[in-house]
Design a protein that fits this description.
It is a single chain. Helix content is about 40%, strand content about 20%. It is built from 14 helices and 13 strands. It has a 7-stranded parallel β-sheet with strand order 3-2-1-4-5-6-11, sandwiched between helices. Helix 5 runs parallel beside helix 6 and helix 9 runs parallel beside helix 14. It binds NADP nicotinamide-adenine-dinucleotide phosphate. NADP nicotinamide-adenine-dinucleotide phosphate binds next to helix 1, strand 2, helix 4 and strand 7. The site of NADP nicotinamide-adenine-dinucleotide phosphate (NAP) has 27 residues, from helix 1, strand 2, helix 4 and strand 7.
């Protein structure tokens, strides 16, 4: 048994939870231990965490009994949901509620819940500037997370609400990397106009969450927004050009065009970028890099992230 404070980490084999797990495990004197939740303890990623010193437990967020076991004796819990696995706001909400309920029953002292804003505070459903999606959302993967905030509050779970930012890894995994246009030149395509997009290295989200756990339960009730840097499309294109040693342009499109791209989630993302563009000051003010750096002094800039990751960006 450990006398360290156990943090039960959802999504430990993924981006956000993985960053948190590795941050805790890298800090042997930090006083915290990782309990990594996974549906498959035999996967390579789960075994890698075990080798680093994590306690790996089999848990499915959709299975209340497994969640109850996973939270037993835990000091803290990192809660994150997996919208892009299923595209269902209802499921996302139910999974957040399951984690909040399990944390309450296990008397967990401090939860960090990875959430996003309710975009309907800026664009009510009646607003025709962007389509309403799935009946009652403007940006489903934002709005359903925000709706789940109140479950943590109503249940009296001591929760810090972590507002995350666009992962720069989307340029590797989400099909958003530079692509060749009709002119044969590489371009990144975003509907952000000349506004700046707060972005972050996914690993830094977990490192910031660790900073919040270190500050402790006194942070419960607070909303903490994080990002690595705020950059316009032009600025990101310039950084790509430098890193890749070939011209990369910013291909500015309208949100309508982006919504029409037809890939799964294009409408959700088109609305998301429109909110980030049209309510840019509010959106940026809520996720200041200096706040993230105070939690995580190793916070990467886009240039540093690109320099470490450029070889992983698929180019045609
Ligand atoms: N992409 C972005 O720019 C961005 C920005 C901000 C927020 N987000 C949000 O980030 C969330 C996803 O987080 P992520 O990127 O860290 O996820 P991820 O990298 O896709 O990892 C998800 C991990 O969660 C586990 N998992 C999935 N379903 C599970 C279940 N039912 N029970 C237990 N574990 C389950 C999987 O592990 P096992 O297979 O080992 O069980 C998987 O490795 C999404 O909701 C998204 O909206 C994304």
């Amino acid at each position: 048994m450990t006398d360290k404070k156990i943090i039960a980490v959802a999504g430990a084999t993924g981006a956000q939870g993985g960053g948190l797990a590795r941050a805790i495990l890298a800090d042997a004197q930090g006083g915290f231990a990782v309990r990594a939740l996974t549906r498959d303890p035999d996967s390579e990623k789960a075994k890698a965490l075990a080798r680093l010193g994590a306690e790996v437990v089999k848990a499915d967020i959709g299975d209340a009994d497994s969640l109850a076991r996973a939270y037993e004796g835990a000091h803290g819990a990192f809660c994150v949901t997996f919208f892009w696995d299923h595209f269902s706001p209802d499921r996302e909400f139910a999974e957040a509620r399951a984690m909040a309920s399990a944390a309450k029953r296990a008397n967990v002292r401090h939860v960090v819940w990875s959430t996003l804003e309710d975009t309907r505070k800026w664009v009510p459903l009646s607003d025709s500037r962007m389509p309403t999606l799935q009946g009652k959302y403007k940006v489903p993967h934002f709005d359903s997370k925000a709706e789940a905030d109140r479950i943590f509050t109503e249940l009296g779970v001591p929760t810090t609400f972590l507002l995350t930012s666009f992962y720069w890894e989307n340029f590797i995994y989400f099909g958003m990397g530079p692509k060749k246009g009709a002119d044969g030149k590489l371009a990144i395509t975003l509907p952000m106009g000349d506004r700046k997009l707060p972005g972050i290295a996914a690993e830094d989200i977990g490192r910031c969450a660790y900073g919040i756990f270190k500050q402790g339960p006194s942070q419960a009730g607070k909303t903490v927004g994080i990002s690595g840097e705020h950059l316009s499309g032009e600025e990101m294109a310039r950084e790509f050009t430098l890193a890749l040693q070939q011209d990369v342009r910013y291909n500015e499109v309208s949100p309508e065009t982006y919504r029409g791209f037809g890939f799964p989630g294009a409408e959700d993302l088109g609305n998301m970028f429109q909110v980030k563009r049209d309510f840019n000051d509010d959106f940026r003010r809520a996720r200041r890099p200096e706040d993230a750096r105070a939690l995580n002094p190793a916070l990467l800039t886009f240039r540093q992230w690109l320099s470490a990751n450029k070889a992983r960006i698929p180019l045609e």
